[in-house]
Design a protein that fits this description.
The complex is a heterodimer of chains A (140) and B (132). Chain A is α+β, with helices and mostly antiparallel strands and 140 residues long. In chain A, 49% of the residues lie in helices and 24% in strands. Chain A has helices spanning 11-71, 74-81; strands spanning 84-86, 91-99, 102-111, 114-124. In chain A, strands 1-2-3-4 form a 4-stranded antiparallel sheet. In chain A, strand 2 (91-99) and strand 3 (102-111) form a beta hairpin. The longest helix of chain A is centred in the N-terminal third of the chain and has 61 residues, at 11-71. The mean pLDDT of chain A is 87. The model of chain B has no long low-confidence stretch (mean pLDDT 88). Chain B has one helix at 3-60; strands spanning 68-72, 85-96, 99-110, 115-126. Chain B contains 1 helix and 4 strands. The chains are: A alpha+beta (140), B alpha+beta (132). Chains A and B meet through helix 1 of A and helix 1, strand 3 and strand 4 of B.
């Protein structure tokens, strides 16, 4: 093809393809970044909602505990509410699932009809699988 | 190729380039705008989650049965004039003798668009012996 200065045919197509390619890559990166940020925020929001839902269940359970301690024996009340009871220490532990592999653990010290919160926390309940790799011990 | 033939092919190529570029640009602009919208929504929701948690923590330490609304500007500073975000706090108290179980619902929304961003629901049990 005969060239005629800078207006040779094909150059504009090539430049356009490069520009469109560059813009497409930046556009896709912008979209993926925004989408991943949004999904991460949604997951964060879900976990916060699930945590506060578990806290709400715990508070409602504590109210139930006070009612049951007034109307029945301590052992009956704890059994009805699903506590695990340690008579030696006077500690009662209650757990509530927050989400998959995560539970809200509440430990109370109960004395007759009164109680106090010793600890409350969320715990990862996923079974721990220790991974072992074979390392040469130095012995033949 | 003679001179008129060159210009003919040049303008033909330019027309094809402009047509293809317009179509490609429409798709690319849509990608950029969707990314920007998602990023903006993510920013709004992140702020809404933090603000809702702050209100929830405040409610856990203050026994109240009054529902109220809080107003914030674009930077999550409390304001009364031209609010951008708003938090509606609904509290329902269920007395149990001298103790009270408060159920609260916290809804964060874009004030101008009345679009909900985040909602949190929980409960708090206030005992007389806790001094609250």
């Amino acid at each position: 093809m005969k060239k005629n200065g800078i207006f040779s045919t094909g150059i504009t197509s090539l430049v356009m393809i490069l520009v469109v390619l560059a813009l497409s890559i930046f556009g896709i990166l912008t979209y993926l970044s925004g989408r991943n940020d949004y999904l991460l925020t949604c997951r964060n929001g879900d976990s916060v909602q699930q945590y506060y839902e578990a806290v709400g269940k715990k508070e409602a359970m504590l109210q139930q505990l006070d009612v049951l301690l007034e109307t029945s024996s301590m052992e009956q009340a704890l059994e009805q509410l699903g506590f695990s009871w340690e008579p030696e220490t006077g500690r009662a532990t209650w757990s509530c699932p927050v989400r998959e592999n995560c539970s809200y653990i509440l430990t109370l010290k109960i004395d007759g009809k009164s109680w106090e919160v010793l600890s409350e926390y969320t715990e990862n309940t996923q079974p721990w699988q220790e991974e072992t790799i074979e390392i040469w011990s130095g012995e033949e | 190729m003679n001179r008129s033939g060159f210009w003919q092919s040049f303008f033909m190529e330019m027309a094809m380039v402009i047509l293809f570029f317009s179509i490609a640009l429409a798709v690319i602009v849509r990608l950029f705008s969707q990314g920007a919208i998602l990023s903006e929504q993510s920013k709004d929701m992140s702020g809404a989650i933090l603000a809702a948690q702050t209100v929830a923590q405040t409610l856990e330490r203050s026994e109240t049965d009054q529902s109220y609304t809080l107003y914030y500007d674009e930077n999550w500073n409390m304001t009364w004039e031209n609010p951008y975000y708003a938090i509606q706090v609904d509290v329902q108290a269920a007395p149990n003798g001298i103790n009270v179980l408060c159920s609260y619902s916290i809804e964060v929304y874009l004030y101008r668009q009345d679009r909900p961003l985040f909602q949190l629901q929980s409960q708090k049990y206030f005992r007389q012996e806790d001094g609250l």
